[in-house]
Amino acid sequence: MASRSAPLNTRPLQGEARIIAAEPYYEPVGGEIALFEAAYASTLPVLLKGPTGCGKTRFIEHMAWRLKRPLITVSCHDDLTAADLVGRYLITSNETVWVDGPLARAVRSGAICYLDEVVEARRDTTVVIHPLADDRRILPMEKRGQLLQAPPEFLLAMSYNPGYQSVLKELKQSTRQRFVAIEFQYPGAALEEKIIRTEASADAATASALVRLAHMTRNLKGNGLDEGASTRLLVHAAKLIARGIPHAGACHSAIAEALSDDPEMLRAIDEFVAAVF
Amino acid sequence: MTIPPLSESELDERLDYLLNPVLSSRRTAAPHARLMAPLKRPLQDFVLHWIEVIGRTNYEMAFQFAAVAPAALARIDTATAEAWIIQAMDTYDREGLYRGGQVFKQIDSFLQRADATQGALFEDHAHILELFACGLSGRRLKLDLAAEPYTDTETLYLPPRIAAFPTRTENFNLYKILIALLWAQARYGTFHADVVAACAAYPDPARAAALLSHLETLRLETRIAATLPGIARDLARLRGAPADPRCAPLMAAAATVHDSLALLADLYHGFEPPASPCRITLHADALKVRDARLGRERGELAAALAQMLHEHVAAPEAPGDNDAATEERFRVDMHESAAGDGAVAIELQLDGKPVAPPDNVTQLFESILQDLGQIPDEYLHAAGDGADDATARDNAPQAEKDPADVWKGIYHEDGTHLYNEWDHKRRHYRKNWCTLRELDVHPVDSDFVDATLTKYRPQVVQLKRTFEMLRGDDRLLKRQASGDDIDFDALIAAYADLQSGMELADRLLTRRHKAERDLAALFMVDMSGSTKGWINDAERESLVLLCEALEVLGDRYAIYGFSGITRKRCEIFRIKRFDEPYDSAVKGRIAGITPQDYTRMGVAIRHLTRILNAVDARTKLLITLSDGKPDDYSDNYRGEYGIEDTRQALIEAHRAGVKPFCITIDHEARDYLPHLYGPVNWTLVNDVTRLPLKVSDIYRRLTT
Questions:
Q1: How many CA atoms lie within 13 A of B363 on its CB side?
Q2: Under 8 Å CB-to-CB from B286, ≥6 apart: which residues?
Q3: How far apart are CA B9 and CA B31, in angstroms?
Q4: Shortest distance, CA A133 to any CA of chain B (angstroms)
Q5: Which residue among A84, A126, A192, B448 is buried most deeply as judged by most CB within 10 Å?
């Protein structure tokens, strides 16, 4: 085999072997942990709804750790097809071999499969998600003529941001009605401050100012901003500040520039920063 | 080498020509020429140039400018003079000849109010300031202009210019501080008490009001310090000296307007508030607006609570008991929120059990809390059946319409859109210059569409076939490096190669490719009078064929016509909206397209850009079907002005992510369309009869 065909063999990632060892930091906002555990025990798939950067991915990591199950995350994009999830035949020197996709591996190993931003994926992925997400819990592997029955440990979870106003990025009713939906919002002010303090080792004053800044940008949602500053952005800014970057510069780079390209909007956010610090 | 100045007689001749329409035997330009004669040639040219520019808008304004310009130019440089002229013309646009002329006559007050080089103009920063106000918590606030800063608790009024400081940055900062202070007045309960009546009770109400305003500013500074420390620092710096020790009670975090009023009584005699650039008027409007809003919100809350009751109570009791029963069923618990910024967390209880209020109830609570500082128990009554609307109506006094507004044309502008227009001579927008209405084309019940389809039957079949091929269907791509399945043809060939000692090719997979057409097209059809006759027929036929083709393709599209006469009557005609199917109503409207008036294109482009921007698509096309240059009956729109305004509107569209394209039948298009649309984004259809077939064809080329 020449080296040019080597990339064909590098696909499998042994994600199912990885069990999160250290507890990922997560602050519960409401009863979401109990809800998730109950859904898991009842083998119900879970849909996490909420704006970007409010802690959906962190939550699923935390739950994987809590339930001691491997977590296989698939970041969906607009070219992600059913074959990318289920698997495909590849060619070795003299034969074709089947290689499982991440979803099939998760089903086989009883892992948690997390489809991040599922609306970005192509429509044909629903074909494999639907039978897996109802009480059949089977993954059809069309090309091999097999059906994979999911063990009780397996859980399908996906995330979805309802904030997109695009009609193309709406989740179909037939898909969404198979899931237990947990809604995520930005945490309340006090909790968000605590998260920033813990995640970025920020002091209380910085954390509180950042939260006020975030609220100001969230007020602008729909008035020039598609989304307000997420908790993740606040943590980024706090980390930069903790490393000695001045407030104005840290917030400009971590928050303003991340939210918008419009010069006037950037200026307005900089004015917020000047006002809250 | 300096050019010699124009002589008095030469100037007189030029002025006679420029100002001719407002001159008479008794009113000549001779005195103006005499004043201008001593000026240097560049200044003379400057004055003449602006007389000409102003004259395009209004000759009388130009005449008045000529009278004052020589004296003014002796004092100010040309850049300042331009700012002065722009201000006068803006005033003229908004408030008419008299006010505009006043600006020319009172150059001192212009210079005094705004040292044009240093003052901050509200207009220059309006967008940033609006965003800033929008970001502040609580009720959504609007910004508007007034001579003195004040708020009516819904709108923050700011002066048009601030020139209190030597630099532009500091003046801009003062705008920010004023916004924060006015916001704090509304947010932190300055109007919880009737401050205006309280001041009126003193022998010198003006003095009391000034003093109270100062005290409130001190009190609010503490509140602002908790949430916006940066602004509070600026406020403290503006204050300079530390606050009078007698005002200390106001610095407590829990101080309210009642503390300020109590202190006012103590300090009324023998305390002089220090001068401050952020002196704010406490306006009686605030209380009126507040009361009106409270009345309205009380009604809305009652209706919303009734709705909640209805949802929470599985089996509603007999209607008779309802009113009595609802009285004490809701209760509100308030506690200071953990954020510590004075925000209060509200918990609603129904029959002693906490319930999660819907969003609208939460918003109403917050608004009422902001106005009253508490939620009085009487606000927690759920409305009885059918009473909700009536309560809301009774409690909300409608703003009386002022008959005088008719003369301002405000009634006529109900339900219209206002757009700026670009004046290339002034290099400035005329604010809210065009009034645009969106109207429906009156559908005509005729067989026009069917007749067209019959007339072009072979072409329609051909057209549909071409467009079908464009459709974003799945295609199987072979010999791909990555893909879903094995391409066995490629594999066999590669295997043979391998056996014969060659390298194994790596493109052995097949992939399904779905070309999604993520685009939205808006067709803007010229409905001006000049399209009368066969051009109109050709346009309508084009639209029929286009719709047939686009229905096959599945692209999102909309069709609007545009026309108008003068800036006050710009019209956009809906033929097909984006969300409308191509049905008999649309067909009727296509048949009903009739030539109207003129072609004021800039405003139409601005409006349609806005419509197009509301559609989510990767590519947005604005395709204009036109028969000639932009043109209108007044304002010199014909010619350069119209072309430059249209060009500016297209630049705005471009900036907004819209791709403009123009299909024209004007043989002179080459002279101006490249300037408007760029060298490639337009096309000329020489033969009008070919237009119907061409339009679809052009669209196909444009989108593949």
A1: 8
A2: B150, B151, B152, B153, B185, B186, B190, B191
A3: 11
A4: 23
A5: A192
Coil, strand, or helix at residue B398?
coil
* Chain-chain contact of B135 with A272 (C-beta, under 8 angstroms): yes
* Residue linked to tokens 């008045």: B64
According to DSSP, the β-strands at B570-576 and B619-626 are: unpaired
Closest by Cβ to B128, choosing from A8, A81, A267 = A267
Dihedral angle sign, alpha carbons of residues A257, A258, A262, A266? negative
Distance of CA B382 to the CA centre of its chain: 38
Mean pLDDT (chain A, rounded): 86
pLDDT for position A105: 92
Sorted by sequence, the CB contacts under 8 Å of residue A71 that are 6+ apart come out as A15, A18, A20, A60, A61, A64, A111, A112, A114
For residue B397, give the H/E element and its range: none
Q: What is the pLDDT of residues A25-43, one digit of tens each?
A: 999 988 899 999 999 999 9
DSSP code at position B525: E
CB of B586 within 8 A of CB of B620?
Answer: no
Residues of A in contact with B227 (CB under 8 A): 212, 276
Tokens of B139: 């009720």
Q: Are strands A87-91 and A96-100 parallel, antiparallel or unpaired?
A: antiparallel
State how far residue A4 is from chain B, nearest Cα, in angstroms: 7
Q: Is A6 on the interface with B (CB under 8 A)?
A: no
Which of left, alpha, beta for B427 (phi over 0: left; psi -120 to 50: alpha)?
left
Which strand (E) or helix (H) includes residue A106? Answer: helix A102-109
CB A143 to CB B485 under 8 A?
A: yes
Round to whole Å and give the CA distance between A32 and A49. 12
Measured between alpha carbons, how far is A216 from A221 in angstroms, rounded to an integer? 9
| Pairwise CB contact (< 8 Å): B508 & A91 | yes
3-state secondary structure of A68: coil
Does A167 lie at the interface with B, CB-CB under 8 angstroms?
yes
How many contacts does A have with B, using Cβ atoms within 8 A? 90
**The pLDDT of residue B344:** 63
Indicate the residue of A96, A267, A276 with minimum beta-carbon distance to B230: A276
**Percent over 70 (pLDDT), chain A:** 91
Helix, strand or coil, per DSSP, at residue A48: strand
* B302 and B384 Cβ atoms separated by less than 8 Å: no
Phi, psi for B303 (deg, rounded to 5): -65, -40
Per-residue pLDDT band at B407 (split at 50, 70, 90): very low
* Rounded-to-integer distance, Cα A100 and Cα A92, Å: 15
From CA A102, how far away is CA B224, in angstroms rounded? Answer: 53
Nearest residue in chain B measured CA to CA from A4 = B506
For the stretch B353-356, contacts whose Cβ atoms lie closer than 8 Å and that sit 24 or more positions apart, written own/partner, are: B355/B308, B355/B312
B209 phi and psi angles, rounded to 5 deg: -65, -40
Q: How far is CA A12 from the centre of its chain?
A: 21
What is the ipTM metric for this complex?
A: 0.78
Question: Which residues does B11 contact at the CB level (< 8 Å), separation at least 6?
Answer: B32, B33, B36, B37, B44
Q: Which residue has the tokens 């010199």?
A: B636
B116-166 confidence digits (pLDDT tens): 556 677 877 888 888 888 888 777 788 888 888 888 888 888 888 787 787
User: Cα angle at A117 between A114 and A118, to 5 degrees?
Assistant: 75
> What's the pTM?
0.61
Residues of B with CB under 8 A from a CB of A: 127-128, 131-132, 134-137, 176, 180, 227-231, 337-341, 343, 484-486, 491, 503-504, 506, 508, 512, 514, 518, 616
User: What residue in A sits closest to B124 (Cα-Cα)?
Assistant: A264
**Quick one: closest CA in B to A211, which residue?**
B339
Average pLDDT over residues A71-77: 89
Distances (CA, A) of B224 to A84, B135, B256, B259, B337: 54, 14, 13, 17, 17
